[in-house]
Amino acid sequence: MIFSLEFVIAGLFIASAAAYLGIKLARKVRFLGGDANCNLDCGCSKSDHGHIGSD
Amino acid sequence: MNDGKATSAFDRTVALAGNPNAGKTTLFNALTGLNQKVANYPGVTVERKTGVWRAGEEKALVIDLPGLYSLDASSIDEAIARDVLTGERPDVPKPDVVIAVVDATNLERNLYLVTQLLEGPLPVVIALTMIDVFEKEQHELDVERLSALLGVSVIPVNSRKGRGITELADAARAAAQAGPRNVNKKEIEEGTNPVFARYSRISEIVQQTVRHNDRAAHRLSGKIDSILTHRFLGLAVLVAILLLMFQAIFSWAAVPMDLLDSGFGALSGAVRDQLPEGILTDLLVDGVIAGVGAILVFLPQIVLLFIFISLLEDTGYMARAAFLLDKLMSRVGLHGKAFLPLISSFACAIPGIMATRTIEDRRDRFATIMIAPFMSCSARLPVYTLMIAAFFSGQTVFGFLSLGAVIMLGMYGLGILVAIAAAFLLKRTLLKAPPPPFIMEMPSYRLPSLRTVFQNVLERAGLFVKRAGTVILAISIVLWALTYFPRTETTDLSAGPAIAEVEAESVQLQNSYAGMLGRTIEPVIQPLGFDWKIGVALIASFAAREVLVSTLSIIYNVGKEADAESETLVAAIRNAKRDDGSPVWTPLTAVTLMVFFVLAMQCMSTVAVVRRETNSWRWTLFMVGYMTALAYFAAFVTYQGGRMLGFG
Q: Which residues, 6 or more positions from B171, have their beta carbon under 8 angstroms from its beta carbon?
């Protein structure tokens, strides 16, 4: 595989996506530990329960 | 006008208190508009909603307390509301005035809380809701007399039309400045039983202020209820309504879905045409557009589903449907209060599980939590729809009913039946408890508010799109990478370049990280009729159910061809072949997969919330374990049974 510019850009995309998912997972773990309010990205509405991720 | 008591940023702090379904949230929305903030009270999962109410030049902080029937503090909600009202919560400013939201159509029950609030240390103003419904039913209410008897201002409001809001602001200001009134508490509690004494006093007030003249209307409502809540007729109507709903979802959503599908196909083609061949183009087309596009195509169905749910809720029918199922559920030992959480779970299990906090008994609460994820949530809709579109579209039952709608109803019904059976077993074994009391409230029938429906649908659709653009996007990119790496070079062109390309893609996928993962679990899922590609999608969908659709889209390389004829996901599923040339998917495989999805616990967010709400890993793991085992067993029986009956 040649490390061209487009390969680097694609790699950045993949790394960002993986990091994003990792952060989401870490926040869930924090939530489980009771240190954070719900920010589950669960698809339910803000009025359903306490999403304060954007506060 | 600052009366000196409120926090510096606001002229005053106002608490909204009232029974559930009294119109408190609608009033809160009308007062605060979009200036809302939702969080939890620290340490508990009771929602704390605050907002800013601007009345003229004044600015008030509004605290929306949890819906409650009394201040007796038998549940967490009631204890928190009482603490806020007495100023005992350090995280919430002590209110200067309480607006008690009272539903005119349920005056006696609502005044119970009001009489308790009047004995408290805060001035009270009553916002009388549903007065239009009350008067439409030809009752009469002497508001001035009610105000005189209670000794507080009573303001009729119509939150949806904004009527009475200015008067409410004036009354709240005046009450905050005047301070609390003195209530002769002794007089209320002198009876032999304080509850009866309170109700006796309320009954006197109601007799002096309300004139019922509603026999005709009451008869009509009674007649409607006698059908809609009838043991058999009611159930038949419920089934008919659900069938109609699913039929509409399938038929009405078809055109916009096809348009979106073609749009994403064209976008894939355009991107492939414009960008040079290579990893970046593959990532954008096969990962991002195929993954996110596969989910966004279902937006019209999600919108239609929530239009129907909102309409059913707003007309008061949902309470009748809950009543019908409640009869059945209470027989298996579930608490009457379990129904709101279970109904909420049809949208998403998480708010449903959180809503179980209103159930006081731990065993009743846990039993409800354990079965809530069986209710088919909106994330399952794309999975059901994809399977139905691939194998059952265009087929009818009895010549007029869409087979897809019947299957969809069957999947929802399967979830409910398994939930009932699971509750029955749990309440007789691990969560054994005496039969709980049976209480159910029936709100009045009313015309749905288009604004409420629109707001609800907009919010849900927005969340769906946001989720597709964040979590689904990220999962799609990572999954694509897992199918793209490590690279396998194949140069055998002996069968021709086109066949060589297909062959190369197949070899690449098999040797990729995703392929290795899929082939590792293949022996476990083979008895269900699933191959390793479905296995990869199943693993990915443990993050969130709808990810199955985007994963299949990536694995089947939807949008690979750069022309307008590029293969859709439905066609890719129909044409997928095993190594021996036999089709991977049959109608039986599709039904098996749907059965698996009805019963399996495939949602990380739900697992997190169950852990949080039960405060127990043991119960959380038990739920994941028993649901997965049940899903596997049911899928096994479906597939193997189907094959034995000749459907394979």
A: B125, B153, B155
The whole-model pTM stands at 0.68
pLDDT of residue B594: 97
Q: HSE (CB half, 13 Å, CA atoms) of B443?
A: 23
- pLDDT value at position B124? 93
Residue from B456, B468, B464 nearest B306 by CA: B456
Q: Grade residue B564 by pLDDT with cuts at 50, 70 and 90.
A: very low
For residue B171, how many other CB atoms are within 10 A of its CB?
22
Q: Is B434 on the interface with A (CB under 8 A)?
A: no
> Nearest-CA neighbor of B246 among B86, B434, B149, B380?
B380
Which of A21, A44, A45 is the closest to B478 by Cβ? Answer: A21
Alpha carbon of A44: minimum distance to chain B alpha carbons (Å): 6
Residue position matching structure tokens 């964040």: B470
Of B148, B101, B100, nearest to B123 by C-alpha is: B100
Q: Which of residues 17-46 of A touch B (CB under 8 A)?
A: 17-18, 20-21, 24-25, 28, 31-32, 34, 37-38, 40-46
Closest by CA position to B576, among listed B497, B505, B492: B505
Mean pLDDT of chain A, nearest integer: 64
**Are A21 and B344 within 8 A, CB to CB?**
no
* Interatomic CA distance for residues B44 and B118, integer angstroms: 27
Q: How far is A23 from chain B (nearest CA, A)?
A: 11
Contact A34 B612 (CB under 8 A): yes
Q: How high does pLDDT run on average in chain B?
A: 83
Q: Where is pLDDT greater, at B347 or B379? A: B379
Task: Identify the DSSP state of B223.
Answer: H
Distance between CA atoms of B604 and B379, rounded to whole angstroms?
13
- In B, minimum Cα distance to A52 occurs at B39
> Is B464 part of the contact surface with chain A (CB cutoff 8 Å)?
yes
CB contact under 8 A, A49 and B344: no
Could you give phi then psi for residue B37, rounded to 5 degrees? -140, 130
Q: Which of A28, A34, A51 sits opposite B604 (nearest CB)?
A: A28
- Please name the helix (run of DSSP H) or strand (run of DSSP E) that holds residue B39, with its range, or none: strand B36-40
